[in-house]
Amino acid sequence: MISDAIRNGTMAIVLTATGCASTAANTSAKSAAGASMASPAAPSAGITAGLARLRFYVGQWTCDGTEWDRPGAAPRHEKLGIRVAPVLDGTWLSVAVYQGDLQVTTELKGYDASTHEYHHLWVTRDGSSGSLTSKGWDGDRLVFDEDHPAPSARGRMIFTRIDDTHFDHRAEIDEGSGYRLEYQKQCHKVG
Q1: HSE-up of 106 (CA within 13 Å, CB side)?
Q2: I want to staple 20 with a disulfide (CB 3.0 to 4.6 A). Which of 83, 93, 106, 133 is the partner?
């Protein structure tokens, strides 16, 4: 569940799958914000038409993340580095999230041309995983709802393109009284 991964301090972004780790080599490169990220394998030539609106997302990002564990609790802040590259002939985007030199999540974002839905898959270092689906763009936002929510709570992630060099990512949870913000990343492209 999204909220468990966030509370464990391991959740940093939206989509992941276990096969993505091969997109990063073992060498490190420092980002402008000081977050270290592994160098990616050579990216595919491009991305498919279904992912065209996410083309801006490909590259290296530095992010400021804030976590609200429970309402009224003091927020926890962190610096993150993100590396996004096309994989599988541009049908998916591989997303690697770092805290310093430590990769904390591997994610995939993709588009299913048969259902016209976007998918977000994620895994973390502690073994947490999840999948979410979006019906499509609402302006500059993709709203991903959990595919398998827990009976007591449902989560969603909102990915918002601000411009070609900025995006916002929110993780929200509804435990029966409406959605509340649990985590937010504000990111700036650095390469």
Answers
A1: 16
A2: 106
pLDDT, tens digit, 9 for 90 and up, residues 82-133: 999 999 989 999 999 999 999 999 999 999 999 999 999 999 999 999 999 9
φ/ψ of 88, rounded to 5, equals 50, 55
CB distance 146 to 158 below 8 Å: no
Two tokens, residue 63: 């992010």
- The pTM for the full model equals 0.75
